[in-house]
Structure formats: C-alpha cells, structure tokens
C-alpha cells in the first residue's frame, strides 16, 4: 500500500446491514488508524431505519471497538459518519443526499470525489445507479465510483441485464466489482511469486507441472443465509467468482506491464481458454455434494436440509469439486482441480502446484516412495508458501527425505496484515481497479458455470446428502483425481509444518 491520503465522501447504501457492520466500518477504521485517510473524509450511511447521526456513530463505534489502539480517537473517527434515512427506490430523497454530500465537501475539504458503495441486495443495484445519475449526484467536480457487492447476477443473462442497467449510469472504468478474494494478501502474491522468481516461471507450464489443486474449504454451514444459498449453492457462491479468479491468476501469461488493463487482458484469455463442456459431459468433470449432519471442530452439527429457510428435499450443492482444462499452449494436458464446500473438516484456502516426477529417481524405491516437489501457496488462515523438496537429512545416508521450506507471511504480526476489504476500499479511493473484476471476466465466468448449473438442474442429485459434516467432501471428489493417478494434498495447517 502507498501512503497517499485520498479524499472522498463515501456513501454506503445499506449502512445498517451486516456487511457494513462486520467489514466496511472496521476496514475504514483501519485505514484511518494507519493514517491512510487524513481527516478529510466523510461517510454517509443510507438505509430505511430511522436512525440519527448519533445512532449510526454509536453502531460504528461498537463495530470497531476491538480495533482501537492507544493513539486512535474513536469518537473523532465516528464524528466523520452521517446518516440519511430513506428508501432507495424513493427518487425525491436523492436530492437531500446530494445537498448533504455537497455540504460535506466544503466541511471536509473534499474536491467532489464520491464512492457509492452498494452494500445492499442486488435487486437494488440498477435503481440506485440510475437514481444517482438522474438526480445529479455523479455530476461533481471530482470523480465518482460505484462499488458493487456480489452476487453480480445469477447467471450470464441476469448478469448481462444488471450490467446494462448500471452502464446506463456509470462507465466501465467507474465500476468496481468486489471479489474480496482479490483483496487477500496471498492471492495478490500469486502474481509476485510467479513473475518475480526465476525459479518458478520457466517451470510454470505443462512440461514441468503435473496438476494444480485449489481448495477453499469452510467449517461454517450456511448460517442465516439459507434463502440466498438455496438459489446460489457453492457453484455460484464460490466457483463463479473467487475460484475462477484464482485460476486466472495462476494460469495467465506474464502481462507486459502491471497495469489493470494488461493484467485483466491476460486473465480474460485464460477464462476464454477454459475447456467448455456439453451438458452431458459435466459429470466427467464436476462432482457436487451436500452436507449431512456430522461433527465439526468437536461440535455436532445439523445437515444442510435441516438448516433454516432450506427445503427439506433441497437439491442445492454445498460442495463442488471439478477438473478444469485450459486448452492453450502452456497448459494443454494439465488438470486444474478445484474444490470448495461448507461444513468441511478445516477452514483453509490452499493452492498446491504439483511438479512432474523426475524421469528416474535414484534415491527412492520407484512406485513405493513418491515425493513430488510441491509449491504450496497458503492463502488463509496461514499466509505463506511451502516448498516441498527432497534432501539428505542424515549425514552419510544415501536415501533422500522429504523436507519443507516454509515462509509465513502473517505469523509475526496478524494485527497488521490488512484485511481484504481494507485494501479494496483503499484501492478504489486511489482509482486502482487491478483487484476488481471487469465485466469481461464476469461474463466469461458465468458462461462457464452456467453449463454446470444447467446440467445439475436437469439431473437432480439422487444421493444428497452425500458427505458428512466435518469431512473433506464426497468420495467421488477423491475419485476425480484418483482416475488420473493423483490425490488431494492436505490443506491448511497440516501442510504448513516442517516435520512432514
Ligand atoms: N454480509 C456479508 O458478509 C456479505 C454480504 N455480501 C453482499 O453485500 C450485500 C449486503 O449484504 P448484507 O449487509 O449481509 O445484507 P443485510 O440484509 O444485512 O443488509 C441490507 C441493508 O440494506 C438496507 N435496505 C434494504 N432495503 C432497503 C431499501 N429499500 N432502501 C434502503 N435501504 C434498504 C437494510 O437496511 P434497512 O432495513 O434499515 O432499510 C440494510 O442496511 C448483499 O449484496 C450481499 O450479497 C457479500 C459478501 C459478504
Ligand atoms: O463470498 C463468500 O465468501 C465466503 C468465504 O470467504 P472467506 O474470506 O471466509 O474465505 C463464504 O463463506 C460465503 O458463502 C461467500 O458468499
């Protein structure tokens, strides 16, 4: 992060909601605490609840209380927050919002810069964007940017319609579509690990890599989001966005420059090269699962079909694993395995790059001891890298033993690692769209995922629930790799120790 102190008025639509409380207020506070904001900023919260400025400020203080340090004045921070109660479908209210933001420009010395953060249900995105434009809130002397939360559509068609609605009011370079995985330190680090190391980039292709595995497992169930999740499932909730974004970063060609346009253009090429499937072929490449009851972190938990707002015969997948093929020169023949699910054994996001075996290994009994070189990128909860190598441990011995080289990015000081939302809000203030998703990426991801959803809607799962809570998913997910002689490597903490 740079030390610039961008000035803007941030309008949060949905300021009384969960996202604002859990992610947005704390992230803005951290930026303030780290002196990234100066005193020249204001936040206007919008929602229907008849709160006052004081009530919003009290809620802000509550949500950031645990982040306070000795040298931050939480009351002073909260005094930058203002509240405007209105229904976003009510056009007249936007004039009052306009007047307030203009007054705040003068009070906080802000040159007309605006961030409109839509922390609300997607059905309101189009209406808010049009009203902002039609009522003149975007016609200021400074810049205006629109930040949009997920889900961006339900499939390609609905995403396209939503995009068209928004584009009537904002140009593509004013739209910042959030994918919070792109704000994670180690996701941003993929590019650096690849392009700043002479060791990896020459090997980063189908001559030397046998397969890549991306796991994003959660221990949580659907919590109180049953209604949303029933229409989304793991495929739309995680694969269409976060997982495909990681695939694109891992597989893209080196961009000619590190500009948002060049990086995006390389990511788009990967998404275009994803092997498409016919509906009948989906089962060869993808496995779905739904959790039943079980034990997670020593607690008994209920199955998905027993969760609130979930159909007791639900066909929704809470787990997806799949084999992606990228049909281009670099990756032809290298499977990229992905898996994500709720109520799994461990909370971890881990990427494992498995290198091909040597043509002949003098130190191992071939077929018995196989210790391939692995590069493991730990995205969360640990942030770091492990390189699995082979070396002689005992002096004079002829045998080789697997050893791990570990680098941990957040072991020293977890407090100071910026949160994903903190980075993304700051990037947006600076006008850096690198870590936001462009429409072209969203469109291609939906087209890829739509075939799978269609296949699964046509052929209902007959074996749901098919994995126990606290496991690593259904057996068919292991079989997907076993068919080609591979196995899922351990994820999370179990892959982050020196004694393996
Ligand atoms: N919560 C999370 O962790 C995440 C959320 N998201 C996305 O962020 C968005 C917001 O989610 P979340 O905060 O959880 O949702 P909530 O339901 O908690 O909040 C919704 C907000 O919208 C306001 N609202 C609803 N209708 C209107 C209206 N007609 N006019 C004005 N305000 C209205 C509500 O306030 P009031 O009732 O006072 O009007 C509330 O502030 C969604 O798109 C979600 O998918 C994405 C990733 C994670
Ligand atoms: O976008 C989402 O992500 C979370 C997982 O995010 P993480 O940062 O905790 O890995 C997931 O729980 C949620 O269902 C999904 O909407």
Automatic annotation (TrEMBL):
Please list the residues that bind NADP(+): 14-21, 48, 87-88, 150
Q: Which GO terms describe its cellular component?
A: cytosol
Q: In which pathway does it act?
A: Carbohydrate degradation; pentose phosphate pathway; D-ribulose 5-phosphate from D-glucose 6-phosphate (oxidative stage): step 1/3
Is Zinc-finger one of the keywords? no
In what residue span(s) does the Glucose-6-phosphate dehydrogenase C-terminal domain sit?
Answer: 192-489
The family line of this record is: Belongs to the glucose-6-phosphate dehydrogenase family.
The UniProt entry, under InterPro entries, shows:
G6P_DH, G6P_DH_AS, G6P_DH_C, G6P_DH_NAD-bd, NAD(P)-bd_dom_sf
What is the protein's name according to its record? Answer: Glucose-6-phosphate 1-dehydrogenase
Q: What does this protein do?
A: Catalyzes the oxidation of glucose 6-phosphate to 6-phosphogluconolactone.
Identify which residues the record assigns to the active site. Answer: 242 (proton acceptor)
A single GO BP term for this record reads: glucose metabolic process
Known EC number(s)? 1.1.1.49
Which one of the record's GO molecular function terms can you name?
glucose-6-phosphate dehydrogenase activity
Which chemical reaction does it catalyze?
A: D-glucose 6-phosphate + NADP(+) = 6-phospho-D-glucono-1,5-lactone + NADPH + H(+)
Q: Where, by residue number, does substrate bind?
A: 180, 184, 218, 237, 342, 347
Limits of the Glucose-6-phosphate dehydrogenase NAD-binding domain: 11-189
Task: Tell me which species this is from.
Answer: Priestia veravalensis
Positions in coiled-coil regions = none
What's the superkingdom here? Bacteria
Pfam families from the UniProt entry: G6PD_C (PF02781), G6PD_N (PF00479)
Q: Which keywords appear in this protein's UniProt record, sorted alphabetically?
A: Carbohydrate metabolism, Glucose metabolism, NADP, Oxidoreductase
Q: Per its UniProt record, what Gene3D superfamilies does this chain match?
A: Dihydrodipicolinate Reductase, domain 2 (3.30.360.10), NAD(P)-binding Rossmann-like Domain (3.40.50.720)
